[in-house]
UniProtKB/TrEMBL annotation:
An annotated GO BP: mRNA 3'-end processing
Localization per Swiss-Prot or TrEMBL: Nucleus; Cytoplasm
Gene3D superfamilies: Nucleoside Triphosphate Pyrophosphohydrolase (3.90.79.10)
Taxonomic path: Eukaryota, Fungi, Dikarya, Ascomycota, Saccharomycotina
Protein name (database record): Cleavage and polyadenylation specificity factor subunit 5
Gene source species: Lipomyces starkeyi NRRL Y-11557
GO molecular function term, any single one: mRNA binding
Length: 240
């Protein structure tokens, strides 16, 4: 349920206050409308591997040389009509993924992660004025970790008890988007704003990792802001 602010409320039927119910929760996150963001394009970025088996073979070669692969992906949240939406990449009109990628051996986690975000979504400098695209990524909480026990497609949000040497760890980080930002998408991909209600319990379309994002975000309170920087709603409903 979303609380409508006094300025945006259009009804006089106000329910009684249920009292304070926000103890021990993280800070409220401000979400801006998807219309605040400018979406451009840049050169295509083909997938490194032609097939799933080739990707797993490359993972095995990486593990044998450098150990467990470290992967970071970003959960970019905005809103539309007062409901959180996640910015996701779609490849070949079918496959969905979050922006990010694996870190290079020895690379710092956050520095490497922001470099991967820039490689995927930062615009070409000549396309837009510097003030529109030079803002640093604000990497927030790590909201999930997924583990790949073997050189297989299966991943889990825990390390199985019989596994002592996982082959990959993927972390999902909450990205706090600024009021405005330019995002340039490779020509062979689309950047879509997917609502939480579409992701929830929809592993058949989005897979187990992406369909669990609504559960990851359920611990946060959100504040929805319009194009004029006016708060138009809050979620969940508290003290109203």
């Amino acid at each position: 349920m979303t609380t409508i602010t006094e300025a945006a409320r259009k009804t006089t039927l106000i329910p009684p206050s249920s009292g304070e119910f926000s103890s021990r929760q993280p800070k409220t996150i401000r979400l801006y409308p998807v219309s605040n963001y400018t979406f451009g394009t840049k050169e295509a970025q083909p997938e490194e591997d032609p097939s799933v088996s080739a990707r797993l073979q490359r993972l095995q070669a990486h593990y044998e040389q450098f150990g467990m692969r470290r992967t970071c992906e970003g959960v970019l949240v905005c809103h539309e009509h007062g409901h959180p939406h996640i910015l996701m990449l779609q490849i070949a009109n079918a496959f969905f993924k979050l922006p990010g990628d694996y870190l290079h051996p020895g690379e710092d986690e956050i520095e490497g992660f922001t470099a991967r975000l820039n490689e995927r979504l930062a615009p070409v400098n000549a396309q837009y004025p510097p003030e529109q695209h030079t803002a640093e990524w604000e990497v927030g909480d790590c909201i999930a970790q997924w583990w790949r026990p073997n050189f297989e497609t299966f991943t889990y949000p825990f390390i199985p008890p019989h596994v002592s040497r996982p082959k990959e760890c993927k972390k999902l980080y909450l990205i706090n988007l600024p009021k405005h930002k330019v995002l340039s998408v490779p020509k062979n991909m689309k950047l879509l704003a997917v609502p939480l209600f579409e992701l929830y319990d929809n592993s058949a379309r989005y897979g187990s990792q992406l369909s669990a994002i609504p559960q990851y975000l359920s611990r946060y309170n959100f504040e929805f802001v319009d194009e004029n920087n006016v708060v138009i709603g809050r979620s969940p409903a508290l003290n109203h």
